[in-house]
Amino acid sequence: MNMTQLKEKFFSFLYTLNLRKKFIVFFIHLTISAAIFFGFYFLTAFVWYPDFYFSANDVWFAILTVAFVDVGLGPTMTFVLYKSGKPGLKFDITMIIAMQLSALLWGSWVVYRERPLLTVYHNGSFFCLSSTQVALAKADLSQFSTGKPIPQAFLALPENFEAGELRRIKMEQTVLASNQPNLPPYILGDEFELLQPEQLPDVLAEELDITKVVSQPTYQALWKQFLNDHKVAPHTYAFLPLVCSQIDHIAAIDRKTGHIIDAIPIPSFQTSLKRTLPEKQPIEEENKFN
Fold first, then answer.
1. E-assigned strands of 73-230?
2. Is the whole-model pTM more than 0.90?
3. Can you count the helices (H) and strands (E) in the chain?
4. Which among 206, 123, 128, 194 is positioned nearest to 164, based on CA atoms?
């Protein structure tokens, strides 16, 4: 058998497999699936989780799941199963599309339900509250419309012992949902206030000293990126913990307004409080009052 005959048999084999049509259908399916996925990604990254809330809320699992099914698995199954004139081809394609739509609807529902609607400052930390958590806390969002993508609220500490006891009893009597943290920012929505300038000293008194942690090789690149993005002196901002998901972040807030400007994925437990406690009196002086 000469070379010409081999080529003819080879191209005849390719024609039998219908590879050309397979690739055409595959790329059409892939293009449509990718366009739909990127629409989903745009909504997630720029509308539902704007700015730093995207990384702080750790929505990558849902996004990657949708990408795997809609952009990876769906078109690949079409390529494998497609054959022109094959009996039951319409059913196969319908099932593939149904699987993709199910993954897309699941991912959209998860990220939309868990999207942050409010950030609450309480006792030295900022807490992101999802739409579900805002509803469980019975918080009225209308009083926090400040023009920011995600408004901020303030939950003060009890002013005295009696107020503290009333809050403790109130929290004990609250029936929590299965995934609702037993912490004031997730329960006491009716006590949330708009963050006012007179409350800023209480917030700034809890700022963190991040000098040591940002000098570590692990976090130097993140710190340099933050400085490059904002191009201001570090002391322009105060840094406090931001609790949105299992990934720890530090929020950078404007010292004049208290608004969160950005957040860095640096663990707050590696930092220390910037404030200094009063020095303890010498024992001799203490004994004078005994």
1. 116-122, 125-130, 152-154, 193-194, 208-209
2. no
3. 12, 9
4. 123
User: What is the percentage of the chain residues whose pLDDT exceeds 70?
Assistant: 87
Which parts of the chain are beta strand (E)? 116-122, 125-130, 152-154, 193-194, 208-209, 237-243, 249-254, 260-264, 272-273
pLDDT band, residue 268 (cuts 50/70/90):
confident
Interval 262-284 mean pLDDT: 70
**List of residues 6+ apart from 170 with CB closer than 8 A:** 188
Can you read off the two tokens belonging to residue 271?
Answer: 């930092």
For the chain, what are the domain ranges?
3-113, 116-195, 198-279
Mean pLDDT over 223-228 rounds to 92
> Given a cut of 50, is residue 242 above it in pLDDT?
yes
* Cβ-Cβ contacts under 8 Å for 207 (sequence gap 6 or more): 238, 239, 240, 273, 274, 275
